[in-house]
Every structure is written in structure tokens, then in C-alpha cells.
Structure prediction request, 460 residues.
Amino acid sequence: MENTEEFALGLDIGTTKVCAVLGRVIAKNNRRRLEIVAFGESGYSEAKSVEKGVVKNVNAVAKAVKNAMDEITPAIKGYYQNQRMPQLAVNLNVAGQHISRTNKPEILVRRAATDEVVNDSDMEDLRIKLYQISVAAGCEIIHVLPIDFSLDDECGIINPIGRMGARLEGNFQIITAQTRALREIQASINLSNSNLVKGSVVLSPLASALSVLEEEEMKSGVVLIDIGGGTTDVVVYENDIMRHVAVLSLAGAHITHDIATAFGLNEKQAELLKIKFGNACPWEWPEDTFVQIKSASPQRPPKEVMLKNVAVVIQARLREIAAQVNEELERSGYKHKLIDGIVITGGSAIIPGIENVFKEVIGVDYVRIGTPQWLEVGKNAEIANKTSYATALGLVWSGFKMLDKRICKTDSEMMDILKHEATRIKPVTPDIEVTKTTMLKKLRNFFNDDLNDSDSRYGS
Prediction:
């Protein structure tokens, strides 16, 4: 069900920062647009508080969450004015290589009458079964998304709603995450004392897709590549269906580390060099173009770094990332079905020339940079309209639209239904102690009766 509340809150806990966005959807020119009411972000007080998308230092992340939320709290209080500010349901992202995906079929045998039309509740009945399947130890289900369906003898149905039939079978994608990783995210929220409760948990690339991909791209065939700080996320869409998702271990932090190693810089200097002068096309820099990097020690002279060499280092790592993406596309079977090519987003997407690298390595005709779409013009929109905020804005969008148009309830709502059913229907288990007591009493009575009969027969 789409959000009937006026606002939605997204909180992106990334490798390099926490970003909080409060937004609402408005209708304008027959199109829904996202108005960013408030925007806040904070870095981490401790290095490596989040590694490869996984929280490592709960206290440091909690502090960053509080700092980011403090920036948007005045806007929230302004809306509620003198009323007590309620707990806010926050949409959270989850990322990392602990994410796993598998396909799973499920069958629903409906009433025998074939004139009964398939409806939303049938789809929910199929999905609810899949939330109860066994998954790997230490993991839990975060998404159950449909692929296609069969109805009686007809196969390959994209959307069965409105069709008639008795036997409905669906193929679904089950996406799981490590329970510990989810608990560490929740612990960070709790310790932040920001008056937040968990809303939806959304896989990072699926959130990014909500904010940067056009509907026509998702129908025609497209791959979204989200190059973050710690991981690169890959998600493939075709026929408006999420077909494949993967999390790669190489990302922006590796580019920074390469620059630091190659030129003897610290990580902070290397990151600044990447942001200011980074380029994936070495030929665009003349041989005599240098930049001076100040040394941390006043006694040491500044270092001169040739920008062409910096571009060579960046290009090499980006080619490696592109090669890994290419392997995933080959594995998915959709590499040659990407009519709308590649969309690159995330913090590293702003490196000039990155499109050329992915075009060459993967062999596609079209690559574009994915900045957040459909933002209502305003001060906050100008700040947030960057590739590095794609996930945060997508988390806000997830409060207003489904990850798949064929479902009418979020994964969190489905899990709530399952928990409610578990508490409402209590299993009937035999009372073992009562059963044993009853049997002993019967045996005692039997022997007593037998002895009494003997006494009456033989007399005294």
C-alpha cells in the first residue's frame, strides 16, 4: 500500500557518511515529484565505522545518525509546531556482500471454479508463504519480489491480476541479509536517541533505482551500477522486473587507496586529489600538468604529482570494476538484452570519463550518469541532486511507491502480517504431564478394582 502520510524519511547509512532526507510527494504537471523538506548528513568520528556497507562501530554510526537527524529536526518540529513530535518511521538501506539472492517457486491452489478472478490477496497469499521458508543460518529475508507466473496451463505471465484460473504458480526472488548486519543497523538507530522507529528496510541498489531510473529504461532493459565508497551494487531490470542483483567488493575507496599508494599520500590527500582532479581519461592531461600536495610536516617539501599518472591509476581500477560488472551481466543472462544500456550512480560516478571505461569494457553503446530524477525545484533539491545521494532519495521514494508495481504491500507490511498471524493462532500442543497423570490414575484404578474383585470372590 502506498504511503498515505504526508512525509517519508530516508536514512542512508553509507561507508563514508550518513544522510537523512525528509520528503513528500506532490503532483505537478501530471507527474509526481519529490519535494525535499529537509536534508542532513554527517561523516563518522571514527575511521572505518562502516566497512563495505556493514556497520562496524555502532557508537560512531549512532553519533552520525544523531548529527544528521539534528539537521532536519527543526523542519520536523516546525511542521508539528506545539504538538509533541511523534516517533518517525524511517526507511533504512542495507548493503554489503552478505546479501544473497535466490529464485523460489510457490503454488496457490484456489477454489476449483475457474471463473474466479486472480486478485491482490492471491498475490499476498503466495508471498506470505515464502517469508516462512528456511534460509541460511544467521540470515533473514528482506525482500520477496515476483518474477513471473503460471495460471493453470498458461506460463510466462508477467501479471496474473484480473485473469481467471484455479492453479496459480509464481516464481519469486528471495533476497536475504545477514541478521547481525541488520541488528547493528537497528542498534545504531536506537543508540542515536533520535525518536526513530524502523519502517522499511530496502536493499541499497533497489532504493537507488527508485530515484534515478526512468520507467521506460526498466521496461526496455537497463543495468544500474551504484559505485559507493565500500561496495559496487549491480541491479538489472528488464520488462519492468528486477532480474539480477549483485554486490561487488571493489568501489570508490579502492580508487582512493590506489592513489595514496601510488603517490605516497595519506587517504585524506588522495581522496581530495580524486575529487578535484580525478579523470578516467589519461590522454586529456598534458604531460607537463602537475599539482602540488602539501606535506603534513612543515619540514618536508610539497609533493608534485603528474595528473596524467593519477588518471592512469583511476582508469586501471575502474576497468577492473567494469570487468567484474561484465562478469555479473554474463552470469545473469541479460547482457545482450540491455536496450537502454548502463546507468552509473553513486559517489564515484562523477569521475570524468567513467562512461568511456564502461562502454569499452562491457561493450555497450549507451552509458549515462544517473542523478536523482523528479525533484521539485528548491534549495534542498540543489544540494541533494547528486549521484552520491541516489540511495537516500530512493529511500524516501520507497515510502510512496512499491519496489515492484505488481505488489500492494511492502516487505515490512507482509512481515507484520506474518507476526500478527503467529500471535493470533497458537499451536495446540498436548499437555504431556496431564496425559501421564491420567494414564497413571487409570492403571491405579484398574489394579484397585482387580484387588477388590479378588477379595469378594475368595472372602476373608
